[in-house]
Amino acid sequence: MENPLSQILPQSFHFMALSGTQFILLTGIMMFFGSFGGRIFQKLKIPQVVGYIVIGILIGVSGFVLLGKDTLAALNPISTASLTLIGFLVGAELKISIIKKYGKQFVGILIGESITPFFVVSILTGSVTYLFTKSVAQALSFGLILGAICAATAPAATTDVLKEYRTKGPLTTTILGIVAMDDAVALILYAVAATISAPLLGGHSVSFISQLGAIAYDIFGSVLLGLAFGFILNLILKNIMNNEGRVLGFSLGTLFLCSGVCNSLGLDNILSAMFTGFFMTNFAHPKTNAMFKLVERFTPPVYVLFFVTVGAKLNIWIVTPFIAVTALLYVGGRTLGKTIGSRLGARLTGAPETVRKYLPYCLLSQAGVAIGLSIASGNDFPDSIGPQIMLIITATTFIVQILGPICVKYGVSKAGEIGLNVTAEDLMKNAKVSDICINGCKLCGQNSYTIVNDTDMVGKIIRDFTHHENMNYEVRGTEGEKSGKLIGQISIEHLKETMQIGEMGELLPAMDIMEKPKITCTPQMSLPDAYQLFTDYDTDSICVVNGANEPLGILEKFTVDHYIHTQIVELEHKLAKMEG
Question: Contact, 308 vs 55, CB < 8 A?
Fold first, then answer.
């Protein structure tokens, strides 16, 4: 079917080839509109990566064709860079302590979620192929190749959702472990399938031993190269950690150099980058761990460009009845197989309940390795099933890349792991003054115990002070124009000075010992802004008021620190409970 959108825009808007001056323009278009689409989808409570991909579809070969096929091919280095960064940050999560704790679980689930869909997809797609072609050899080959390809899971879209929603817990740990390893299983299954299919179809036949040798070279070569670059990066970074710009430069330079060497040697750049991250998180000097945060801050614009290009490459106008039926069976069989396999593997290895129930939702995405294997099938079987397999994988990638991130969000949300991977800085950044609680009670309110009237006696205030942790009070006026308004504040120092007078001091009203408030804020002020006021005004307390200057409570530096610490402890307890 011809793309009806391709002729809407003037010819000058179609970038069919990429020149040097156009690169900056196209990068700007992709980054700006990709970020715009991500923000819209985020507002709709849909993972932002879906917005990036949809924008890519609109400007790519399925939409208005701003980006032609040759242009997209020229933008491949963006994909390489993004996948390298993704692999590196996934490797950073694979700590040896986690592997020791979850190793048995990882292996059991990995085997189940890879092998089960292999058989389910092989049977379903092989059967429908026989109905269309009446050829046993073609049906068997078709089913085996698609079954092998379906084992792969794309880490990019999945990890982007985990990062966006700050997830942490047993499900997140399992997801990262599985998506890091199942591509290797897909490569081995493809070698077996291609070896069986070649003599049946009369294609380019390669011995099984040769196929396994090539896979061993790919896997072990990538691992060793990644570890070597990790060793080099550690030697460089441990002496320059005081210069963040230089740390980021060396880190990115090492990763991209590693990726370039992989491409030259025919190795897997994702796997190699992953083991660079694995080395750095497990064997490098502890002070180099800050480097991961620097690299992570660099990734958002690269991810936007990557997912826009992913969407731009998807062609939805290539579907025939046979391709449509087979693609639907592929997606359904793959989903069913990964659901049965992952749940069976999780149950047999004693995985937590949240992993057993919600892991299947997080294994649907496919992209890089699946597309790569479909291209390999096109090269291995160019005159038989190869071209059709490439079309099916392209069509199904379009479906699962849209639905996959949404399902990942659903899974981690139901597992209760959203928002658990946060630091004190993250909690501070997302909080307002009105969020602060003291012993389970909201700080802000007109009945706050940190508010006293100007006629209250010092003795009463001192007695109240012994029952609470606050060191300061707001003073509220009770007469005339100042009635109900903030007129002053009292600190513990004022109370100490008054107590030195003796019993007479307890009979003094609050208005006689108060001082003018140094600074005020509103409940809507962000916590970082309010916290900065402590430094700017050299104070440890801030009076909270509403728009009418009515007192709502007193914000103390100690209270903020205690609130943030309590939130962190609660998250740690929740994680510990989830992990059993």
Answer: yes
